[in-house]
């Protein structure tokens, strides 16, 4: 927390002068999109976002001429990009690193960098250093550049909500996180809203559902099993289920996550208004319903590969997570997700398995 406290007292050239009063948030006139910065570009969502931008060659109908891809490890250079690409590796939570990233004044910044829920819970200091201090360094680096007001898209999480929950969490429900990760994201949301209100940047925060089915290998996220019990059986590999089949959760596919980011980067700020953090649409299903969708698509043989092995630690974390949402506001603003878990599985088969099952 030392870095956060140090930042709080740092003066900035864009701070209002004595007697000037607070500046209302403003939505700067959108510039011609020339330069995209993705922080967290080596992660799964970052890679898929990069692939989408490379495929489209434009954002919001405006030509992309260059992109900067950053992460703690150097992101891969996308093949066939129609624009210039620079890749960088550093720890953006270290003093001075965020300033380097925004020095060239990118027009749109996607802030995807974070350590995941399980790791943030296991390592308190690291979670706050990356997920909070790193975010504040980035926001203040933008704020320090006079006259620079980029669109900044911040990936938050449904972990900002804590029990007890209503049947469906609406847009008016308060944020009372029950994990360190959720607390870090909730603070980031408050900072984003206030910095946007003060006119330091034009921010949109999107609370992502649990992304399922995640490709690749399992990570340290406590939610990883939601993907594992689908991904591994589809490839003929055994998977472990650490919770009961009655556990209900909120999901969207990686393809939808990229769609959320693209829409958040291009939506008119006036339509969003001062409440700049939005719960993304998704699908509420139980683990049992996930397995039944797997059965419909891949058969009994695939479901038989899921081994029930209760994990009290995972069960405790999951018990405090939200289960269902009414994302009316995001839907009214044009954000879209899948209509069934069968659709989520089909997206994984199409995007990751070449349309073929391994089971």
- Main sheet properties: 7 strands, parallel
| Helix content percent band | 25-40%
Distance between the termini: 48 Å
CATH superfamily of the domain at 2-8 and 22-209 and 254-279: NAD(P)-binding Rossmann-like Domain
Strand fraction equals 15-25%
- Categorize the overall geometry: globular
Total strand segments: 14
Second CATH tier, the architecture of the domain at 2-8 and 22-209 and 254-279: 3-Layer(aba) Sandwich
Order of strands in the sheet with most strands: 5-4-1-6-7-8-12
Q: Taking Cα atoms only, what radius of gyration do you get, to the nearest Å?
A: 20 Å
| Helix segment tally | 14
Q: How would you classify the helix and strand content by structural class?
A: alpha/beta
Write the CATH fold name of the domain at 2-8 and 22-209 and 254-279.
Rossmann fold
Q: Could you name the CATH class of the domain at 2-8 and 22-209 and 254-279?
A: Alpha Beta
| H/E element sequence | HEHEEEEHEHHEHEEHEEHHEEHHEHHH
Point out poorly predicted stretches: 1-28
Would you tell me the overall average pLDDT? 90
């Amino acid at each position: 927390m030392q870095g956060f406290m140090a930042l709080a007292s740092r003066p900035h050239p864009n701070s209002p002068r004595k007697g000037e009063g607070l500046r209302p948030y403003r939505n700067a006139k959108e510039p011609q999109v020339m330069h995209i910065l993705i922080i967290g570009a080596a992660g799964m969502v970052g890679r898929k976002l990069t692939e989408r931008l490379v495929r489209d060659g434009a954002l919001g109908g405006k030509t992309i001429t260059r992109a900067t891809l950053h992460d703690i490890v150097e992101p891969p250079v996308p093949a066939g990009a129609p624009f210039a690409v620079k890749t960088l590796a550093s720890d953006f939570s270290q003093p001075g690193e965020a300033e380097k990233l925004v020095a060239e004044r990118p027009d749109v910044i996607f802030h995807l960098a974070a350590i995941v829920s399980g790791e943030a819970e296991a390592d308190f200091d690291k979670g706050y250093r990356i997920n909070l201090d790193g975010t504040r360094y980035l926001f203040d680096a933008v704020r320090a550049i006079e006259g620079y007001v980029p669109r900044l898209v911040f990936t938050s999480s449904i972990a900002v909500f804590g029990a007890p929950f209503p049947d469906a969490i609406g847009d008016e429900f308060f944020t009372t996180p029950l994990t360190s990760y959720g607390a870090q994201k909730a603070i980031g949301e408050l900072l984003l809203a206030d910095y946007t209100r003060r006119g330091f940047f034009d921010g949109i925060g999107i609370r992502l559902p649990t992304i399922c089915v995640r490709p690749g290998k399992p990570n340290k996220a406590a939610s990883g099993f939601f993907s594992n019990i689908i991904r591994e059986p589809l490839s003929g590999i055994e998977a472990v289920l650490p919770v009961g089949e009655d556990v209900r959760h909120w999901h969207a596919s990686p393809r939808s996550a990229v769609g959320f980011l693209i829409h958040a980067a291009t939506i008119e700020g006036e339509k969003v208004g001062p409440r700049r953090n939005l719960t993304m649409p998704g699908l509420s299903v139980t683990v049992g319903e996930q397995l039944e969708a797997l059965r419909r698509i891949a058969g009994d043989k695939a479901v038989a590969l899921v081994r029930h092995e209760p994990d009290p630690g995972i069960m405790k974390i999951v018990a405090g997570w939200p289960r269902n949402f009414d994302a009316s506001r995001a839907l009214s603003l044009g954000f879209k997700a899948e209509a069934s878990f069968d659709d989520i599985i089909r997206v994984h088969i199409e995007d990751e398995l070449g349309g073929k099952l391994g089971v």
